Automatic annotation (TrEMBL), chains A, B:
Homodimer. Residues 66-405 form the Aminotransferase class I/classII large domain. GO terms for biological process: alpha-amino acid metabolic process. The lineage of its organism: Bacteria, Bacillati, Actinomycetota, Actinomycetes, Pseudonocardiales. Belongs to the class-I pyridoxal-phosphate-dependent aminotransferase family. One of its GO terms (molecular function) is pyridoxal phosphate binding. Its cofactor is pyridoxal 5'-phosphate. This is DNA-binding transcriptional MocR family regulator.
């Protein structure tokens, strides 16, 4: 403890003179394994299957450039000025049109525009989670969500998935277990469509059941749906929000259907919750960037945005196919993966005894990067899994990357068979718990 | 208490079925009086002296439009893509050049780009403040800062100001008083230049003393400096950060020197703190909008940004003069105010017995809006004060607004002299504590 009025003591073990000043929540703030990789993985000789960057080359930059110029020239006094924390009214109306594609019937008043859906997630956690509150989330789950939950000192309890997404029986068991422990569950965080990182989709027949379970237990559902319109078979699933408007908070984003660098996302919330969200957002950023909202609004009204989504879908389907066929061609026996029907990711399980986190530095030496599975769990699981993102590289690069990855794995298996599993683990050091390979 | 597993009970007094689910911090999230006003104050017949919107009409929209178009056309694949939570490297270098004008010698690595300096403030509070921690702040202080502190359940203790800014002796007394109470002070939040809302500037000879006091007590200084380059006499004061790099976290913004709607601000922090800030920012928004960073970077490299600041200064000086001369001409006896030497605001004290919050609805009826003083205090003070923002309206409108305000005040004084102070208070209801007029 640092007593009030005393200067902070500088411990012999730390060079940070501010160490004793930090809030307790900073203990949960650790560098994401995935993002720590980006610098090295972005070297041109490395095929990065690690990041989730959209395939922007599919965008019509010339016509966008002209539209953006016109927004500044004709609406500059609004675009460059402060706006409301709630968001630009016209954009909120258009967002309702976008959500209508998923069966959602919403009022623009209940939409809050955010700086990417990451901010939506952060705001939802801010208004609902006290330290120690439990958030249920699929295991694995989106790494950015785990970061937000940690920032508010919420405890994540993972719920199992299978090929049809979240398993209702596992959800019941997780709820019962948390209730027995006397802790309080604030919400279920779920990515029902083309899951990040698992690539699976919640089966339509399970959706009502998941909603019923949560409703029966007084648990809010936070539905994160950045990839919902990116189904490769032309199928758009009905949002959870479409059938349960009072108990679902929906998070949407233009990052994957338009442009990530604009950072325009939104939250659709029950009316009473929406008021709290606007207040929280105001204290966080005052307002989302007005220019970016007007650009998205203009884009939706002047461009064939549905056609653009179709273009994206086709690009991602081609890349998914490249990833899957290369996996089938090259991966060593004992590896398994799913075939996603939309979105950006394939989730791969490697042969027993291999630690994907420990293997990563050797993979990068072999000029391929991926995201190891442990980053997607709050509880140390995932060391036998890895995520392949096929969204950004060309199909040719994806095939080359998967080939390199398979070679690294084969070398690793050979090492493992010769020297045993400890070889793989020694590299990653004390931060590599690997309960599911033990 | 809502027991785990039980659906939330709907109280008879509330229509919000989620009421029992909210985090404790939401109790401190209340609608800012100032922002609640914006809707009504933005009607064209009302002269709004309430908001702090910059005078964007001074911007060269045509050349900006062309630059923005070029950013999208030639750098679109970067501008519209995800970036790092740290911010675009080239912009961070240019930010160091901007800060050099205030005597700051900084490394670009220690700059973190944020979604406006409001996000910087929120991130700084996030990493330093546990619930119950004390933040010292001038009284009055920036309403958005009070909102962030409340969101993290920090307790604000105000420190008195005079015409030379924060009073060192008052700072010593506040620290001693908090220390006696056993609470822990995390930082002093201060706006040294052209204070919002008080309009005053911390005298140069006091700066070292304030820094010394904080350092001696192990208290970090958070220096918020959005207006520092907007001094009307051509004077730019040395930043607190310039002489104490290890104990000052500096918040900067392009909102007042360029364009607020881009939401580009920054934090300059001691190196160890900077790492925590980047992690916190990543969990909050993943990254600030890349497009906006490239626009600011382009603007700084191709436009005469120092000339633009000079243009802004001249516009604001003219408006300050309009405000001050009208106050002198019209305000009733017993009113006092300061003459700011930079920035956006005049802080007015009205005659005893007048409650500025209670008076506001009547002022709006008379087609003038202002910000009542209570919004700038965490402790209920300020009911005899009001803030006039002269940044946005034309000088002519400012004069008309001040004339209307003076008339409202005169009517109020007459009512007060006839019926006593309760008339003024009855209107604002139970939310109008007014200890300094009692």
């Amino acid at each position: 403890m640092n007593l009030p009025g005393q200067p902070p003591k500088q411990g012999a073990r730390s060079l940070d003179p501010h160490l004793r000043r930090y809030a307790a929540r900073t203990a949960g703030m650790t560098a994401s394994e995935i993002r720590a990789l980006f610098a090295v993985a972005s070297r041109p000789e490395v095929v990065s299957l690690a990041g989730g960057m959209p395939h922007l080359a599919a965008l019509p930059l010339d016509s966008l450039s002209a539209e953006v110029a016109d927004v500044v020239a004709t609406e500059g006094l609004v675009a460059l000025q402060y706006g409301s924390a709630h968001g630009v009214p016209e954009l909120r109306e258009q967002i309702c049109d976008v959500m209508a594609l998923e069966g959602i019937n919403a009022h623009p008043d209940d939409v809050v525009v955010t700086v990417g859906s990451q901010m939506g997630l952060d705001m939802v956690t801010r208004i609902f989670c006290d330290p120690g509150d439990v958030v249920l989330a699929e295991g694995p789950s989106y790494v950015g969500a785990l970061g937000s939950f940690a920032a508010y000192q919420a405890q994540v309890v993972h719920v199992g998935m299978d090929a049809d997404g979240l398993v209702p029986e596992a959800l019941r068991e997780a709820i019962a277990s948390v209730e027995r422990s006397g802790r309080r569950i604030k919400f279920l965080y779920t990515i029902p469509n083309f899951h990040n990182p698992a690539g699976v989709t919640l089966a339509v027949q399970r959706r009502a059941e998941v909603l019923d379970i949560c409703r029966a237990h007084g648990i809010l559902v936070v539905e994160d749906n950045p990839y919902g319109l990116l189904g490769f078979d032309g199928v758009t699933y009905p949002a959870l929000r479409s059938t349960d408007p009072d108990n679902v908070v929906y998070l949407g984003s233009f990052s994957k259907t338009f442009a990530a660098g604009l950072r325009v996302g939104w939250v659709l919330a029950p009316h009473a919750v929406r008021e709290k969200l606007v207040l929280a957002a105001e204290s966080a950023t005052l307002c989302p960037p007005t220019l970016n909202q007007l650009i998205v609004s203009r884009y939706l009204s002047t461009h064939d945005w549905k056609g653009q989504i179709k273009t994206y879908r086709e690009a991602y389907r081609e890349r998914r196919d490249a990833a899957i066929s290369s996996l089938e061609q090259h991966m060593p026996l004992g590896s398994t993966w799913n075939k996603p029907t939309g979105g950006f990711y394939v989730w791969v399980t490697v042969p027993e005894g291999i630690d994907t986190k420990a293997m990563l530095p050797r993979a990068i030496t072999q000029r391929v990067a991926y995201a190891s599975g442990t980053g997607f769990y709050a509880d140390g699981l995932g060391s036998r899994q890895l995520r392949i993102s096929y969204c950004y590289p060309t199909p040719e690069r994806i095939r080359e990357g998967v080939r390199r990855l398979a070679n690294v794995l084969k070398d690793e298996i050979e090492l493992h068979e010769t020297f045993g599993p400890t070889v793989g683990r020694a590299v990653s050091g004390p931060h590599s718990p690997s309960p599911d390979t033990a």
